[in-house]
Amino acid sequence: MTTKLLADADHFTRDYMIINALGVLDNPNAPRSSATAGKLVQTSEDITIDARTLAEAHASGLTAVNITLGYVMGDMDPYEHTLHEIAVWDTILRDNAADLVKVHTAADLHQARRDGRIGVIYGFQNAVALGDDVSRVDRFHRLGVRVVQLTYNQANALGDGSMEPRNRGLTPYGREVIERLNDRHLMVDLSHSGERTCLEAARISQQPVSVNHTGCRALTDLPRNKTDEELRLVASRGGFVGIYFMPFLNSCGHARAADVVEHIDHAVNVCGEDHVGIGTDGPVTAVDDLSAYRDHLAEQVARRREAGVSATGEGDDAYPFVVDLRGVDQFHELIRLLEQRGYRSERIEKILGKNFADYAKRVWTS
């Protein structure tokens, strides 16, 4: 990464607030990150926050990112593992206080931008860590968690995930958890949820809900993508939809930048331009050696299948990112493509970050 490229990327994106509704801070090329890339789950201790991670995150124009911490899957104790992960990230932020800051409120997003730091939003991609004790929501709130995704791909005690064929919707406990999340003003994230779970949660929630990383099922009929009915309902109740940079945007498993634009455009047409953003589900720093990465990918996909946690559309040759929309200039390139599509700067500003910030203001109130 040359100094000129970093400067050019920073110049291009500096006028936009860029908030990634689900992303990663990591240098996947660093020895520790590379060595653990094939694991079923990379923990927060496996990732690398180094000089390149920070420099490229800044140069990309990133204002804030919702990261995944805590239990998603695996054989560790969900609650204890999640508490440990929060402690790990607290240490990361403390050690990199000049560059990173924890986000508690919507105002913190704007303050991070003014300070030239990157806001880090603590989020879950599975609510299993709550166990059967809804009061744990209170503790996680005190520890700084601000986004709680109800399910991963499978069913859990709250409801069915996108890969649960019975599509049964929320459980009574799931409804109780949503009520508690509303009371504590935490985001209810319905990414990975089954269709009935998503629709029921959006209807009963007293606060607007989100789908922080998804695609549009009308364009690509895969379980991880949301139907127009789901998208429309989430938006109609003041919620937020983030489009990911993932293989699920194309049925062949090899999504391109053009697919990302198509899914954003469809979501805007269904939800309205005030409710759509981005949740890439990936890092800013790109994998340098894609050939070597294929071996790690095949290993991880095999482990996910064996564990029963994979989703339709995952494959040995389907990178979990969009090859031509990755790296430090990914937001730069997306802006260019949206401009080519005829999007005015005000709409691009909303999609890149303003819509998420406005949604956060609606939910993260005291």
Account of the 3D structure:
The chain has 366 residues and is of the alpha/beta class. It has 13 helices and 9 strands. Helix 1 (3-13) packs across helix 3, helix 5 packs across helix 13 and helix 8 (195-204) packs parallel to helix 9.
Count of DSSP strands: 9
Tell me the β content: 5-15%
Figure out the total of helices.
Answer: 13
| Overall spatial form | globular
Structural class: alpha/beta
Radius of gyration: 19 Å
- End-to-end Cα distance: 42 Å
Taken in chain order, the helices and strands follow as HEHHEHEHEHEHEHEHEHEHHH
Q: Report the sheet with the most strands, covering strand number, pairing sense and barrel closure.
A: 6 strands, parallel
Helix fraction, binned, reads 40-55%
How are the elements arranged and paired?
Elements: H1 3-13, E1 18-23, H2 31-35, H3 51-59, E2 62-68, H4 78-95, E3 100-102, H5 106-115, E4 118-124, H6 136-142, E5 145-149, H7 172-183, E6 187-189, H8 195-204, E7 210-214, H9 228-236, E8 240-243, H10 257-271, E9 276-278, H11 290-307, H12 330-340, H13 345-363
Parallel strand pairs: 1-2, 2-4, 3-4, 4-5, 5-6, 7-8, 8-9
Descriptors for this entry?
366 residues, alpha/beta, three-stranded parallel β-sheet, disordered N terminus, single chain
Q: What would a concise description of this structure say?
A:
With 366 residues, the protein is α/β, with parallel strands linked by helices.
